[in-house]
Amino acid sequence: MGLVHLPGGLNLAAVLLMLTGSQWYILFNTIAGARAIPQDLKYTARLMGLSRWQRWRILYFPALFPYLVTGAITASGGAWNASIVAEHVVFGGRTLYTVGLGAIIARATEEGHYPLLFAATLTMITLVVAINRLLWRRLYRVAEERFKLE
Amino acid sequence: MAEHLLELRNVSQVYRSGDREFLALKDVSLALDEGEFLVLLGPSGCGKSTLLRIATGLQRPTSGEVLYRGEPVRGVNPRATIVFQTFALFPWLTVLENVEVALAARDVPPAERRRRALEILDRVGLDGFEGGLSPGALRRDAPKSGVCPGHGGGAGAFMLG
Predict the structure, then answer these.
(1) In terms of CB atoms within 10 Å, which of A39, B15, B77, B139 comes out highest?
(2) What gap in Å lies between CA B153 and CA B136, rounded to an integer?
(3) What are the φ/ψ torsions at residue B157 (nearest 5 degrees)?
């Protein structure tokens, strides 16, 4: 918590909190993906004598890609959620906040400022939906069509 | 002593899971010479695949030795391979790219890779399949065109001299 005394400290702390909270989605999805790689493909890669880099490029990365996308989608959802608590912290009798949508939502809730709460929540919903449509859904389609293990 | 192409000496393999033990291979010795063709027959679970993995160096036996041209095999033997019953093709690569991968592993330059891969596909009657076709589509479409990449069980191992 010493971080908050640095300039921009709470920003950094908020980012760190969101990262620690959301990294698990990616980690566990990656583990699940690694376990799903068929043993025969791993053997074949070794029998062919592919180098470490070639094995990553030709086998592991494509096989993990759909799982990485799923992990990233879940993680980004978790991070939006975490931003509300991470950007606005009551600590040692002081209220610390950074500039951000999460902070606005948390403060508006605390102060009972409902029009602002409504507007901020609506903004967050719009952002989440837009990013889902423009980024995640496209990546997901690529993962489904190109990197599916049959 | 005569040098064989491949020799297995007193190879045993025990699989352990917790405190349960399973003896998959018990004291197997065999020798293969150049030009020989060996078929392993047996019910499933009798250790055929284990023997193939050990013979190619994918797996180290619990005890015993594997020799290739008289030299102990350490790691995967680059002169040996296995064709798996699942074909083990990379589904995100085209048929042509799948052939090229094996050449890329041997540091063949890209242009040469393409030329030799096309030649190989041509030789096995898969010319015309070299476009953007995925292995999955090949499996579906190949029987229709009279080319059958084979179905069903078994794995084959190949030792190159």
Answers:
(1) B77
(2) 18
(3) -115, 145
Domains and CATH numbers, chain B: 6-76 (3.40.50.300), 79-161 (3.40.50.300)
Return per-residue pLDDT of chain A as tens, 150 residues: 555 666 667 778 888 888 888 889 999 999 999 999 999 999 999 999 999 999 999 999 999 999 999 999 999 988 888 888 888 777 777 777 778 888 899 889 888 999 999 999 999 999 999 999 999 999 999 898 888 776
Residue in B56, B81, B84 nearest the CB of A40: B84
Chain B residues inside the 8 Å CB shell of A148: 91
Contact B105 A148 (CB under 8 A): no
Using alpha carbons, select from B147, B107, B108 the residue that is nearest to residue B129.
B147
Which residues 6+ apart lie within 8 Å of A46 measured at CB?
Answer: B58, B76
Q: What are phi and psi of A30, to 5 degrees?
A: -65, -40
